[in-house]
Amino acid sequence: MAKKVTIQILADLAQEREERYHSHNPLAPGHRMCIGCGIPPIVNEVLLAIDKPVVVSTATGCLEVTTGVYPYTAWNTPWIHVNFQSAAAVIGGVEAAYNVLKKKGLIGEDIEFVAFGGDGGTYDIGFQALSAAVERGHNFLYVCYNNEGYQNTGYQKSSATPIGAYTKTTPVGSAKVGKQEPRKDLTMIMAAHGIPYVAQASPHIYRDLTRKVKKALTFKGPKFINVLQPCTLSWRFAPEDTMRLAKLAVETRYWPVYEVIHGKYWKVNIKPKRPKPIEEYIAAQPRWKHVLKYPEIVERIQKEVDDKWNHLLALEEMSKALAEKEGIDYEALFANPEDNKESQ
Amino acid sequence: MPTKVIALTGNQAAAEAMRQINFDVAAVYPISPQTELMGFFAEYVANGEVDTDMVAVEGEHSAMAACIGAAAAGARVITASAGPGIAYMVENLYIASGMRLPIVLIDVNRALSAPLSIHCDHADSMLTRDSSWISIFSENAQEAYHNLIMSVKIAEKAMFPVIVNYDGYIVSHSIENVEVLDDETVRNFVGPSGIHRIPYPLLDVSKPVTYGATAQPDYYTECKYQQHVDFLKVYDIFREVAQEFESISGKYYDFIEEYMTDDAEYIGISMGSSFGTLKDAVNALRAQGRKVGAIKIRLYRPFPVKEVARALSNAKGVAVFDRADSFDGIGGPLFKDVASAVFHNQNRPLIHNFIYGLGGREIHEEEFMRAFDRVERLEKGVESRDYLVEYLQVRA
């Protein structure tokens, strides 16, 4: 088992929250998530980065069934779950209520609004509600914890499941080897909505994720962050390897860490100098490693990864040129929120 | 009580009530015959006549989800829909009532597909009958207007959501004289908005609450039992609010409305706009010396079991008119409710079920009169029946 190490930045954020709002962790310990689950660090990194009271909505899924088991709750912040497909619509309703009541002078505080959903509740069944809520321009942050399948129901394929991966609905058989289709690129789709802020992140780079949340909240309107969440149970790796898997996903360029402002300006935050071959990431996951026996499938996966990576770099170059043409300081756009507080 | 009489359609009357109540949030999606209502209301929003944040969602499922979020937040909220839109939001209807949120839903009654029909029947509302929403049917624009004003108060006292039904096109698009209360009277009646109208608002961030927990078999039954017990309290709450409303409007609305039932041997029962026609049928038959009467169900859920049982205690025969079929070999939803209500009566009448008015089919007094004849002949043993249910209006 890995040694317990205090992550200073998160400890500091928790301390700050305690001092300001007398609430240490918005998500209290004692919930029922699996040992080694990637969700609690993601939720904590996101919520601790927010230095205001926050109302959270959550789609049905792992996070929901493990944190609010009647008559207990792990939520130390106002929280609502309606159903699988509605996290974005629900938080939109809460935010609409807030706007009216605030305008009437019936609420004093400034409140932030965050929705969490897994990939099932975000890429698939909740996609319509998400797309529509961001089109309507509600002021909220949507965070997808993407574990690439329906893990709460025992691992069925979602549109986030990669090529060749085993799931209960895409088994490995003599006629078909796992999932046939590539992953839906939801982050790109959200960027295409032209909303103020879209990003991909990974929980092992906690500094990056907390910074992205802070950055996102400097914008009024809808924000979306897609976070890869390695699932120890269904991907079948040892509980202590969660962050190692997340790291490998970034080092192989399988999960690029990047951000998009107004759907126009792109920045790739981490560019592995010597990217690891995708085989290394695949080999670490028993759900997926059978594909190593099929070079043509591995090749297809590597090509998907390379194509997306090159596309991202091209978008980055293009947006730098665009910013220059528009007379906008590209670097300032992506500056740390702490560095340009006056521009908020 | 300052009122004025103006000519309004059902949708205009409902929009007027919405304006006067000044809901905090209205989450809506267009669907006929409700669309026009939200169009009228959108103009009030656009002209700043209300404080409402109108959230134009992408479907009825999200409309109800947004209403749930907004109501749990502490806002006064409303949505409106019809037919397939009601069907689409059914999952969330159960969640709204399970969370005990005082939401108002206008159901401009419309048939369900297939075949597609935008016209009136009550199939949509019947999808909601077991959802523990309080359900009120309106006969005309006046009642739609009054029911809507009362619904806010009923919902907030009972902490259950309320559906106000009125018939698509027949009521929603017909112009009638409507007695409208003045704005101040309505606003005083419903009271001001504010998150603490409900016990546990999400927006009270100093007291974090959890909405929508998961309950295992060790608690689910207890949660539902609380809901069951509290839903039975709606009868008293409805009466209380109806009495309060009488003091501002001069009109008292009971669970049911009885017409010439005192000495009636044969009684017809319906809901919604057809009741006027049913009363015409009763008048025509009374002119022939027949002892007939009619009952209108106003409060459909919770069902006025005792009132219906009492009103039918001396009847020989009952014709229940359902504007929706259950396709179950028994009869329409209202028929089963009425049959259950009179089951323990000492004098149990013959009850027969007629399905009418589906998909906007017009109903005429002659058809209702024919139904009374049929029930009388069944009761006297002159005719017999294979089933408890038959269609009243099928073309040859």
Query: How large is the radius of gyration of chain B?
Result: 21 Å
| Strands ordered across the widest β-sheet of chain B | 3-2-4-5-7-6-13
Helix coverage percent of residues of chain A? 40-55%
Assembly level: heterodimer
Largest sheet, strands/sense/barrel of chain A: 8 strands, mixed
Number of strands of chain A: 8
Q: Helices and strands of chain B: which structural class?
A: alpha/beta
Rounded average pLDDT of chain B: 97
User: What is the general shape of chain B?
Assistant: globular
Strand order of the largest sheet of chain A: 2-1-3-4-6-5-7-8
Number of H- or I-type helical stretches of chain A: 13
> What string, H for helix and E for strand, traces the elements of chain B in order?
EHEHEHEHEHEHEEHEHHEEHEEHEHEHE
Helix content of chain B: 40-55%
Shape assignment of chain A: globular
Question: What is the terminal separation of chain A in angstroms?
Answer: 43 Å
- Mean pLDDT figure of chain A: 94
**Biggest sheet overview of chain B:** 7 strands, mixed
- Extract low-pLDDT stretches of chain A: 340-344
Number of strands of chain B: 16
